[in-house]
Amino acid sequence: MELYTPIFVLGGIGAAFVVLSMVVGALAGPKRYNRTKLQAYECGIDPTPQPVGGGRFTIKYYLTAMLFIVFDIEVIFLVPWAVHLDALGMFGLVAMVLFLANVSIAYAYEWRRGGLEWD
Amino acid sequence: MTPTTETAAAVSARALDLAAEPGLEAFGSDPWWIVLIKAVGIFVFLMVCVLMMIMADRKVMGRMQQRHGPNRFGPWGLLQSLADGVKLSLKEDLIPRTVDKVVYIAAPMVAAIPAFIAFSVIPVGPEVSMFGVQTRLQLTDLPVAVLLVLATASIGIYGIVLAGWSSRSPYPLLGGLRASAQVISYEIAMGLSFVAVFIYSGTLSTSGIVEAQQPVWFAVILFPSFVIYLITMVGETNRLPFDLAEGEGEIVGGFMTEYSSMKFTMFFLAEYVNMVTVAALSVTLFLGGYHAPPPVTTFWPDAGEGWMGAVWWLGKFLLVMFLFIWLRGSLPRIRYDQLMALGWKVLIPIQLVWITAVATIRVLRNEQYPPYVTAVVIGVFFVLIVAALWAWGRSAERARAESDAELEAERRAMRDNPMHGGFPVPPMTAPHYGSSVAAEEPRFQPASAHEREEVSGA
């Protein structure tokens, strides 16, 4: 635990600074009420009354997020393997190459089907 | 091979033993006041770095563009960013009526606080004597130190997403989405570029990785990983040429459009602290940390000892920081589809092949296979890479031929029909204008295929 305590100390200092400066910012600045100032900024035109598109946005972002999960798990799987590669030897190498090939098939399929195109 | 008679306590003791990495004995034994001094020191260093970096950014950019940059406040304008900070804190703290107030206020904190934490595992120097206590110039080290940096970077993304979402306004929403999609895409390539380093270092602790680079830097052995790390590091921090999240010409300020005063400053601060962190991480993982570069050590063996180590570290760190400014001064902003294509179609496949190659060669060498096996494997990888490049070139050629044909058809259509493409604005040369303008000439001459400007990565 002693290894982790200094992280909390640094985090505490950072948090104190962030909160304090935000409070100071809120108190120090002027407060001049103006109805227009409190509107959402849309380059001066009247702001859209509802969230854009009913709060929906393009599916591309969901797709990217899902791909991210797949690949992030792959990275997390690679990390302990990489650290102990010398101990795992040939067996570990073959196992990981098989796993990478598995993921790459899905990746190639997605690429071929245009899942990585952005337009 | 756990014997069945082994008790649960023994098993868990053995598991703890495995968890305790060797080489971390130097950490976790500092007296509390040394920890406090180091933590405050890191905090001050980060703040000074951010202030100086903002100033240097503007000064160097100015010089690159044949102008002076800020030079009024303090000697050579050195205090400019301090003045900006004071000014920002005295601005009105607007909270638009439509926002989700709790999340809106929490978002800048979520972005800024993790940014500070990541620096705690960066080794700045070797063991030094600090007020009579022998201690490392590093706040702490963990068996999973590099993962801590990645984790804090990921938490920082929440700040961006929440800021964009809670603003309830189109530009911030788009900016937040763009920024998060970009950062998670580049985070994968970044994580993959670490894997090769871990193969060589055999540890995740940052001080261990620095020690593993004693004869040769990983930037030399693992050059492709280093280059890809540099690219992803710029992508992670939303800096030019990858600053699509706040492209002023398209989506105003991006996710921070609705923020003002100190809340805005916190996002700004988080961005620059993140830059400091990724630059420090590149020094740690690839540039040998606080060790003096190899040519120097031949004639000055203890160049990296004691406080001199921190000087070497600072020099390397400043070079990487300068690279950020240099890139910003040299490169135009790329398009969003190019950005995503670079992340997903170039960096990730290259990394996967590279990691496999590094691991294979390492295992073959460890297990003492005869050299010709290694040679054959390298040959196979080489052939695979050439084949992939050939296939890629062929598909690019095909795409170019397609677009050339399209362009040619367009040219022909324009020649045959002056009103072609005349909606919604009729061409000036359309016949019904009946002017002196010659009707035969097409209004627009598309450049022929060979003189067309190369559009890459689309």
From TrEMBL, chain A:
<keyword id="KW-1278">Translocase</keyword>
<feature type="transmembrane region" description="Helical">
    <location>
        <begin position="89"/>
        <end position="109"/>
    </location>
</feature>
<dbReference type="InterPro" id="IPR000440">
    <property type="entry name" value="NADH_UbQ/plastoQ_OxRdtase_su3"/>
</dbReference>
<keyword id="KW-0472">Membrane</keyword>
<keyword id="KW-1003">Cell membrane</keyword>
<dbReference type="InterPro" id="IPR038430">
    <property type="entry name" value="NDAH_ubi_oxred_su3_sf"/>
</dbReference>
<keyword id="KW-0874">Quinone</keyword>
<comment type="similarity">
    <text>Belongs to the complex I subunit 3 family.</text>
</comment>
<dbReference type="GO" id="GO:0030964">
    <property type="term" value="C:NADH dehydrogenase complex"/>
</dbReference>
<dbReference type="GO" id="GO:0048038">
    <property type="term" value="F:quinone binding"/>
</dbReference>
<dbReference type="GO" id="GO:0008137">
    <property type="term" value="F:NADH dehydrogenase (ubiquinone) activity"/>
</dbReference>
<feature type="transmembrane region" description="Helical">
    <location>
        <begin position="6"/>
        <end position="28"/>
    </location>
</feature>
<dbReference type="GO" id="GO:0005886">
    <property type="term" value="C:plasma membrane"/>
</dbReference>
<keyword id="KW-0812">Transmembrane</keyword>
<keyword id="KW-1133">Transmembrane helix</keyword>
<keyword id="KW-0813">Transport</keyword>
<comment type="function">
    <text>NDH-1 shuttles electrons from NADH, via FMN and iron-sulfur (Fe-S) centers, to quinones in the respiratory chain.</text>
</comment>
<keyword id="KW-0520">NAD</keyword>
<protein>
    <recommendedName>
        <fullName>NADH-quinone oxidoreductase subunit</fullName>
        <ecNumber>7.1.1.-</ecNumber>
    </recommendedName>
</protein>
<dbReference type="Pfam" id="PF00507">
    <property type="entry name" value="Oxidored_q4"/>
</dbReference>
<feature type="transmembrane region" description="Helical">
    <location>
        <begin position="61"/>
        <end position="83"/>
    </location>
</feature>
TrEMBL record, chain B:
<keyword id="KW-0520">NAD</keyword>
<dbReference type="GO" id="GO:0016655">
    <property type="term" value="F:oxidoreductase activity, acting on NAD(P)H, quinone or similar compound as acceptor"/>
</dbReference>
<dbReference type="InterPro" id="IPR018086">
    <property type="entry name" value="NADH_UbQ_OxRdtase_su1_CS"/>
</dbReference>
<keyword id="KW-0830">Ubiquinone</keyword>
<feature type="transmembrane region" description="Helical">
    <location>
        <begin position="339"/>
        <end position="360"/>
    </location>
</feature>
<feature type="transmembrane region" description="Helical">
    <location>
        <begin position="216"/>
        <end position="234"/>
    </location>
</feature>
<feature type="transmembrane region" description="Helical">
    <location>
        <begin position="32"/>
        <end position="56"/>
    </location>
</feature>
<feature type="transmembrane region" description="Helical">
    <location>
        <begin position="372"/>
        <end position="392"/>
    </location>
</feature>
<feature type="region of interest" description="Disordered">
    <location>
        <begin position="416"/>
        <end position="458"/>
    </location>
</feature>
<feature type="compositionally biased region" description="Basic and acidic residues">
    <location>
        <begin position="449"/>
        <end position="458"/>
    </location>
</feature>
<feature type="transmembrane region" description="Helical">
    <location>
        <begin position="266"/>
        <end position="290"/>
    </location>
</feature>
<keyword id="KW-0812">Transmembrane</keyword>
<feature type="transmembrane region" description="Helical">
    <location>
        <begin position="142"/>
        <end position="165"/>
    </location>
</feature>
<dbReference type="GO" id="GO:0048038">
    <property type="term" value="F:quinone binding"/>
</dbReference>
<comment type="similarity">
    <text>Belongs to the complex I subunit 1 family.</text>
</comment>
<protein>
    <recommendedName>
        <fullName>NADH-quinone oxidoreductase subunit H</fullName>
        <ecNumber>7.1.1.-</ecNumber>
    </recommendedName>
</protein>
<keyword id="KW-1133">Transmembrane helix</keyword>
<feature type="transmembrane region" description="Helical">
    <location>
        <begin position="186"/>
        <end position="210"/>
    </location>
</feature>
<dbReference type="InterPro" id="IPR001694">
    <property type="entry name" value="NADH_UbQ_OxRdtase_su1/FPO"/>
</dbReference>
<feature type="transmembrane region" description="Helical">
    <location>
        <begin position="102"/>
        <end position="122"/>
    </location>
</feature>
<comment type="function">
    <text>NDH-1 shuttles electrons from NADH, via FMN and iron-sulfur (Fe-S) centers, to quinones in the respiratory chain. The immediate electron acceptor for the enzyme in this species is believed to be ubiquinone. Couples the redox reaction to proton translocation (for every two electrons transferred, four hydrogen ions are translocated across the cytoplasmic membrane), and thus conserves the redox energy in a proton gradient. This subunit may bind ubiquinone.</text>
</comment>
<feature type="transmembrane region" description="Helical">
    <location>
        <begin position="310"/>
        <end position="327"/>
    </location>
</feature>
